[in-house]
Amino acid sequence: MAESRVSELLLQRLESQDGALESLAVAAELGLEHQQVVGAVKSLQSLGELIDAEQRTAKHWELTDEGKEIAREGSHEARVFQSIPAEGIVQSELMNLPSGKVGFSKAMSNKWIRLDKNASGGPRIFKVVECVVDSVKEKLLLVLQGKADHLDEKEKNELKKRKLLSEVTIKTYWIRKGSAFTTTVAKPETDLTPEMISSGSWRGKKFKAYNFDALGVMPDSGHLHPLLKVRTQFRQIFLEMGFTEMPTNNFIESSFWNFDALFQPQQHPARDQHDTFFLLDPAEATEFPMDYLERVKKVHSEGGYGSQGYQYDWSIREAQKNLLRTHTTAVSARMLYQLAQQEHFTPVKYFSIDRVFRNESLDATHLAEFHQIEGVVADYGMTLGNLMGVLKEFFHKLGITRLRFKPAYNPYTEPSMEVFSYHEGLRKWVEVGNSGVFRPEMLLPMGLPPGVSVIAWGLSLERPTMIKYGINNIRELVGHKVNLQMVYDSPICRLDS
Ligand code: PHE
């Protein structure tokens, strides 16, 4: 029976009742499992003050499995009695019947049957009464109907001894009409839909209250998102090549580290509102290494280190503006500055894979946030040749062997190269990354020794992931439209190198 129907019957019973109803008795009267009534009580409770239900523990008699069989088919003694014909039955034959042994001794002590030991053909059993009353079955039926209190203690204990009844403690409900009692329950809404809002029909509706005690469905296991799987592979490659991971746990950065430290002029279009998310609160960063900041100011406005700079009035207010970092090169800048503060320079290989943000128009391949993979190598005398060699090694480990480099422009690298690889599936050269040698205007103000050069490259994590997992629209990979089943079903990432 559906739970709503049980609730309905329960309310009807309460209507003609002044006192309390006990859930166990209701279950017996309706011929239901107690649990079904408990379910109805709980769902009615969730609707407000319809009913008052008080939980109590009660001892209650239940039929054992054997007890249930007897309530259905009769006691062993009754079954034995029924199977004896008028001319009697040979004792050994009767003993072989399913209820034979127990039934025989009980029927004997009830004086329903007699044994003639001297009958011809062996001991024989005869009925001594015409008909019998199967009181064991009748008592069990009473218990089944919830009328155990019609039996006295002695009777119940006897049935318990025969393992036909057992006494169990259960939680029952004492149910009364509540202050908002009614027998007609309008099924409350569980969802507030856009239609209800636009038509205003939500005003007249009753909504189901949240059950804050409800336990969530336990997930069978966690699942790694494809981006995480591909990230693991990239991290593995960097680690194999001896790179150390940079700490990238600051999504918020000042313009100073994101742009100025990278010799990106303050009028650069990438700093515009259209490309960068600026923060309102806190809108400005206040702590900088001031002597370094002065050197950055100087190299922008006047030049130095053999450069003429940009020749404009550099403003600290512009550098203070907080933003969501637009590239992980901001982290590389912080790390290289730290490296320059060492007493003696040591060569380093750094990498990072983390999230960046750009105020871009969204389309099938662009979101306002994505992940960058970045590699940085600093040592004396690093050249464009070293960069090409490291890139070749890096992409080789990814399974990408055909590479081409194209001259490009970044404010912070000179020379700069875009990296293209031949895509066998698409049958064309596709851009896979950007790279370059960091400019002296960036490195020397940090305090790095003049002979040190730094090569670096960056690529997105999303692009290779989409290619690897055959996803054409980035909204299927990231965001609220992601099909979780896709996440569950995606295999681990193996790069075919
Ligand atoms: N920061 C560059 C970008 O956002 C990538 C890059 C990193 C280029 C390092 C050169 C050197 O595209």
How would you portray this structure in words?
- The protein has 497 residues and is α+β, with helices and mostly antiparallel strands.
- Among the domains are: 58 residues, Orthogonal Bundle (Arc Repressor Mutant, subunit A); 263 residues, BirA Bifunctional Protein, domain 2 (2-Layer Sandwich), CATH 3.30.930.
- The protein is built from 19 helices and 15 strands.
- A seven-stranded mixed sheet has the order 7-10-11-15-14-13-12, with helices on both faces. Strands 1-6-2 form a three-stranded antiparallel sheet.
- α2 packs across α3, α4 packs across α8 and α5 crosses α7.
- It starts with a helix and ends in an 8-residue tail after the last helix.
- It binds phenylalanine.
- The site of phenylalanine has 11 residues, from β14 and β15.
